[in-house]
Every structure is written in structure tokens, then in C-alpha cells.
């Protein structure tokens, strides 16, 4: 499934040290809330992830995903 591969790689990029079982839970959560493309990550809020991650993990993931969603024009140095 391409969708599973996409979510798996997105999870591994931002939380590479997360336990495999936790990655599976996070991927299921992302799929259940409707994440289908990289652009969808910009709409996730911390509360969406708290059933799968601890608060700091959720904040790290969100920060990384939102940064990746920015285009060069919207990034502020």
C-alpha cells in the first residue's frame, strides 16, 4: 500500500528513534484522521497525536512536519 509507505516514511523522518509498535500506532492514528499527502501534515494539531505520542514527541513531530510543508516563499528566516 502506497499510503502505508508514505505514512511510515513520514513518521521515520521525524521520529526515527520511536519504537516500532509506537510507529504503527502513530501511522494508524494519522490514517484515521485523514492524512493522505505531505500537505495534510500542516493541518494536524497536537491533540490529534496525544493518543499515540507523549506531548514532547507530538510537538517535535508537528514542528518537523510543519517545517517540511512550508514553501521557500512562506519560510521566514
How would you characterize the overall build of this protein?
This protein has 77 residues and is mostly helical. The chain has one domain. Helices cover 58% and strands 0% of the residues. The longest helix is centred in the last third of the chain and has 15 residues.
Using the CA coordinates, give the radius of gyration: 12 Å
State mean pLDDT (0 to 100 scale): 88
The strand count comes to: 0
Which band does the percent of strand residues land in? under 5%
Order of secondary-structure elements: HHHH
Shape: globular
* Helical fraction: 55-70%
Unreliable runs, pLDDT <50, ≥5 residues? none
Number of domains: 1
* Biggest pleated sheet: none
Q: How many angstroms separate the termini? A: 37 Å
> Please, how many helices?
4
- From the structure provided, what is the oligomeric state, counting identical versus distinct chains? single chain
By secondary-structure content and strand pairing, the structural class works out as: mainly alpha
